[in-house]
């Protein structure tokens, strides 16, 4: 029939074909969960101790200070608006207090499950991943399953292989044969264990989300007591840095547990070494035609100026951005900005105190100061 969609392992599917139920948790629900997490009775715990260690790691002045991933808690109490992280897509330094909408896909047999605890169980990880992305993370996608650990590993390897070998058009006959074999194997395996959703629906929904919604990552959540949830990253650029998250808590409810076998969500503490990445090559076209490219933009959240060679040649800069003006005192006591000494004026103005952010103009620095002042401190000498 004309216009009818057919399920195929080699053609991007449509979400309208999915039989899974989508439950949406809005920004208010996320705010409520964050408030409950901050008020949890067992504080201090492993997460709080980890953020305390982050607070002790003062940033050092170096040439890559504005390009590397960084997490800072310099001032104030333990609340998201005082903890800042570097975004991997725009290079901005912004707080963790931004909320998101969560789309939870689950089988109809799981309708009685309350999805709020699902998100609460991995809230710290989602907060950090949300903070790492300036754009594309206003909505987070979660697929709820009941897979056990070995099954989750096999499903993860299947999706990695498919996305890396068959997501950009026709593939080799040997690749097609392997995908067909693995798909049939997983279908029979999960059907034999009576897993929900069935593997074809899981495969269809995940690939449809990646194709239509294009998120930086997607979470496969397992509510099995002896399993973990998996984060699938769309590109290696979106993976948390090993230097920052190497000692991140495992996610076990027991604050003193360090056994990775108890983790509730497989957070890539060792960076690319342990991350599940659907596309490893930075220059390859992913998300069906869209390229992944890190940028360095003006730290004012509503500014669209990008500091790059292309922008410099076009001269597209906000008014006053090429003047190198200074705001506040000459010592930077008010978070003043000074012209970057080793770069042309057109490439932006650097905060003279922390040297972690850039602005296209003094006006945008003043507009961003109310937020940036919560993290702006002098760095430690290298």
UniProtKB/TrEMBL annotation:
Give GO terms: molecular function aspect only: zinc ion binding
Recorded hits in PROSITE patterns, A to Z, give: ZF_MYND_2
Membrane spanning residue stretches:
none
- Zinc-finger keyword on record: yes
Q: Where is the MYND-type domain?
A: 303-376
One Pfam family from the UniProt entry? Answer: zf-MYND
Which UniProt keyword terms apply here? Answer: Metal-binding, Zinc, Zinc-finger
Top-rank taxon, per record: Eukaryota
Q: What is this protein called?
A: MYND-type domain-containing protein
């Amino acid at each position: 029939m004309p216009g009818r969609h057919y399920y195929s392992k080699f053609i991007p599917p449509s979400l309208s074909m999915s039989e899974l139920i989508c439950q949406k948790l809005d920004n208010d629900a996320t705010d409520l969960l964050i408030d409950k997490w901050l008020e949890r009775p067992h504080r201090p715990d492993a997460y709080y101790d980890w953020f305390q260690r982050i607070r002790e790691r003062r940033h050092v002045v170096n040439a890559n200070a504005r390009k590397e991933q960084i997490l800072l808690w310099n001032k104030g109490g333990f609340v998201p608006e005082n903890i800042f992280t570097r975004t991997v897509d725009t290079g901005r330094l912004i707080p963790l207090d931004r909320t998101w909408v969560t789309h939870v896909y689950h089988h109809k047999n799981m309708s009685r499950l309350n999805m709020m605890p699902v998100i609460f169980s991995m809230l710290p990880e989602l907060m950090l991943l949300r903070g790492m992305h300036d754009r594309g993370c206003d909505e987070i996608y979660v697929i709820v399953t009941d897979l056990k650990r070995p099954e989750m590993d096999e499903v993860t390897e299947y999706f990695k292989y498919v996305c890396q070998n068959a997501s950009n058009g026709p593939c080799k006959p040997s690749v097609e044969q392997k995908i067909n074999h693995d798909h049939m194997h997983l279908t029979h395996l999960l059907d034999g264990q009576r897993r929900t959703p069935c593997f074809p629906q899981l495969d269809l929904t995940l690939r449809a989300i990646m194709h239509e919604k294009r998120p930086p990552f997607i979470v496969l959540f397992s509510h099995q007591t002896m399993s973990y949830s998996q984060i699938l990253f769309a590109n290696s650029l979106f993976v948390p840095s090993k230097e920052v998250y190497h000692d991140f808590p495992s996610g076990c409810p027991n604050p003193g547990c360090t056994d990775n076998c108890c983790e509730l969500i497989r957070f890539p503490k060792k960076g690319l070494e342990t991350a599940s990445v659907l596309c490893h090559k930075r220059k390859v076209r992913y998300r069906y035609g869209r390229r992944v490219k890190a940028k360095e933009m003006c730290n004012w959240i509503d500014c669209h100026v990008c500091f790059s060679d292309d922008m410099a040649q076009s001269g597209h800069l906000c008014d006053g951005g090429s003047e190198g003006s200074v705001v506040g005192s000459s010592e930077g006591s008010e978070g003043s900005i000074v012209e970057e000494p080793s770069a042309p004026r057109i490439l932006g103005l650097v905060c003279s105190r922390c040297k972690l952010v850039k602005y296209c103009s003094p006006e945008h620095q003043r507009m961003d100061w109310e937020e940036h002042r919560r993290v702006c401190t002098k760095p430690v000498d290298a």
